[in-house]
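[step 3/7] inverse_fold.run input=structure_tokens len=154
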């Protein structure tokens, strides 16, 4: 499923509706917590931790328990509506699925940068050809230093 990318800070009802429809089609209930998680992720292009998401959801819906947010993230991830990303030794971060892209993680400041898959795809093809391994490049981040941190370390 392709989801339209929203505008930062504003809820994209079309994208949220598409996610909710997909979840219903999979036989799942669309709860307040599930919708709140999707809205939180829709409002930003940042990569948020589960704790960040739980805090944002609880600001709007204090009765939603943290464990409910974690279960919603698991359901959304299993349905392919949310991508979770392992960033080095830090916590897993999440963002709504949409355009398929790679990630660069700065070990200096912790920033996570999105990069087009066209940059990563040649490496994935070579890994597949030479090692018979199907790389899931969108699921992990390549580590290093961002321009700011690299400049500061000189």
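[step 3/7] decode complete -> sequence:
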């Amino acid at each position: 499923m392709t989801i339209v990318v929203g505008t930062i800070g504003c809820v994209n009802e079309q994208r949220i509706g598409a996610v909710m429809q997909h979840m219903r089609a999979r036989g799942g209930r669309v709860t307040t917590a599930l919708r709140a998680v999707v809205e939180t992720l829709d409002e930003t292009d940042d990569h948020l931790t589960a704790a960040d998401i739980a805090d944002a959801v609880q600001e709007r819906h204090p009765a939603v328990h943290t464990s409910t947010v974690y279960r919603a993230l698991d359901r959304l991830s299993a349905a392919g509506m949310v991508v979770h990303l392992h960033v080095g030794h830090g916590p897993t971060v999440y963002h709504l699925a949409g355009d398929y892209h790679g990630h660069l993680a700065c070990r200096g400041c912790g920033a996570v940068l999105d990069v087009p898959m066209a940059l990563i795809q040649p490496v994935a093809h070579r890994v597949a050809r030479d090692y018979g391994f199907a790389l899931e490049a969108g699921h992990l981040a390549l580590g290093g230093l961002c321009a700011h941190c690299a400049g500061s370390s000189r």
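[step 4/7] annotate
The CA atoms of residues 78 and 142 lie 23 Å apart.
Residues 1-9 have pLDDT under 50 and may be disordered.
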